[in-house]
Amino acid sequence: MREFLVEITTTIPEGTEPAEVDRRRAAEAVRAKELAATGNLLRLWRPVGELRSIGVWRAGDEDELHEKVLGTLPLRSWMTLTVTPLESHPNDPGKADAAG
C-alpha cells in the first residue's frame, strides 16, 4: 500500500438546501470512520482558520485512491483535491518506531 498526502477543499454549490448539506456531512463522517477502520484514512487535519482538510491516505495506487477511496466520499462531487504520492524519507524518525 502506498501513502498519499491529500488536500481537500469542499465548496458547497450555491443554492444547495441546508438539509442536503447536513445529510452529506453526516454521511461523510460515517464514511471517514469506515475508511479509517480499513486503513485507507490514516490522519486528517484542518488548518486553523481554514475550511480545508489535509490528510494522509493509503491505497494500492493513485487510481485506487481516486476510484475506490476518495470517490466513495459523500461530499466528493463538491471537493477539489490535490494528491501528492509519498515515500519514506531515510531520516524519518518514525521509521525507528515502526521497526519496533
CATH class: Alpha Beta
Give the % helix.
25-40%
Quick one: overall form? elongated
Secondary-structure element order, as H and E? EHEEHEH
Strand order in the largest sheet? 2-3-1-4
Domains counted in the coordinates: how many?
A: 1
Can you tag this structure with a few keywords?
alpha+beta, Alpha-Beta Plaits, 4-stranded antiparallel β-sheet
Care to describe what's here?
By secondary structure, this protein is α+β, with helices and mostly antiparallel strands. The chain has one domain: Dimeric alpha+beta barrel (Alpha-Beta Plaits, 2-Layer Sandwich), CATH 3.30.70. The chain is 34% helix and 30% strand. The protein has 3 helices and 4 strands; from the N terminus they run βαββαβα. It has helices spanning 18-37, 62-69, 94-99; strands at 2-10, 41-45, 52-59, 79-86. β2 (41-45) and β3 form a beta hairpin. It is elongated. The mean pLDDT is 94.
Layout of SSEs?
Elements (H helix, E strand, L loop, with lengths): L1 E9 L7 H20 L3 E5 L6 E8 L2 H8 L9 E8 L7 H6 L1
Antiparallel strand pairs: 1-3, 1-4, 2-3
